[in-house]
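Are you able to produce any protein sequence you like plus the matching backbone structure tokens because I've never seen that pairing?
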Amino acid sequence: MQQKIKDAGIELLIVFGIGGLIGSLMAWTSNTYVSGVQFFTIFREQNPLFQISLGESDFELTSLIFLWVAALLVILIRRVFSVTRWHGPADSIYSAQQSKEPLDIKHGIASTLAAFTSAAGGGSVGQYGPLVHFGATIGIVIKRYVSSRLSHEVYLGCGVAAAISAGFGAPIAGIVFAHEAVLRHFSVRAIAPISVASVTASAVSQAFFPSSNVFEITATPPDLVTLIPLLVIASPLIAGAAILYMESLRRSTAYAKKSGYSAERLILTAATLCGIVGIWVPEILGLGIGTINDMINGMYGIPGLLILLFVKIAMTALCVGFGLFGGVFSPALFIGVAAGGVIAQATTMAGIPDLSVAVSIAAMAAVAANVIGAPVAAVLIVLELTQSYGFAVAALMSVMASMLLTHRLFGASFFDRQLMDRGINLAHGREAIALAQNTLKGHVNDDYVSLSETNTGHEALEKMREKQQTEAYVISGNGCLAGKLSIHQAIEAESKSVFNFLDTQPILLHLDDPLSTAMHVVSDFVGESLPIIDRNDRRFLGVITEGDLFKAVITVQSDVRSSERE
């Protein structure tokens, strides 16, 4: 009993120590990041640098100049860190689902710097996605220096939860987001340190950054009897806005890859076009938090909201797709509020009471939930931001109704689709990923009957009898597999060479085949064992029996299930 108490006490200290450390670091990092972006945004908006006159019109080019500088800095970051692809929440999610491919710390840091630079320069990008991935990166960095029984995914989850908690001032939403969107499962061992990290991040933010809550939502709770039917009816429009946004991001990225243009040219193109558009529609530049608050408070009419909605989608897709890297979460909030504002004002014109604030908030949560794939976390963010049960219920209905459509028409969250575009399907679960990552390399068996091309049927039968096996493998002089011989073929060969009786095209496996592929091959196999060869030169390496293959698969599945239960 004393030992159990001692072990429990040590584990408790570890949980609070690791969670508190990651939470504190992310609180300072997140708030410093946001404050830095806000500083440059205010500087850009209040200090005009360059104006030109065309006819009777004056044009302020400060936004364009800032974006050119940001683009050059992003290009510099890309070269200094040798970045081939910017990393974000999708990489955090994938890293949490497996342990064979660790999170790339260098690319994580570089991507965060690039996202900060893009947002500070006025790019139409977000801040929360990069902070989430940086939180995951910080968690993995700490794991390298702080040893404990906690798995890498727990450290990663602590960083993710702390980032959301510090960014929104929503510790409960941070905990749920880490489990719902990133880890994809709940466990006793994970939830304790993640909770500590999230609550610590919120507490430190409140203590040292009291004005960190950037959203201004002070409206009274809505009339749910009128609001809920309206949100259900409007859900196709909200889902449509989310799908249009996500598809635009994917298509822009695909176009950039197929264009053949250099990364530098694409980044400068995005900066130039976004800067030019920003001259006429400055609201779409940067994070757009102030514009979100203005839209919630009814400062724009339907024409203005529609312009902001479609221009924000286009410019965010351009920036993210062309490499002026940044997050997609903040723009999703912007797009949701704009779509909700259009719906609310249109229904008010039709005679329905003004519910613009509630509809805007609910639509904001719905678009964000569809993009990040975390419906419960999105609702909790609304609950913690507004401190209103009514707003949270409205958001819940909007989120669930719209997600039914987006899952049918788009298929998954934007991050899941990013991974699918890279050939990674999380819908199959952790076991499928683990089976795909474990190859046959560690499961080659040398217990087999080996024959040369000159052996006779009688000699083959004798060797089979000695090893108590009914199959043999004929190996050529250069070590390659010539074919497979069954006991029936050996009997048929008698005193003749087995070379003319063997199966030259047996079912076989390659050394680098994953266990998932091997299981698929075995589904059509009847026999004792399968040969394993080198993919390049057909060199025979050994065999694997069905029993050994099943044991390997069961071991991998058990390890995955054990990690999820702990």
Notes: The chain has a mean pLDDT of 88. The two ends are 21 Å apart (CA to CA).
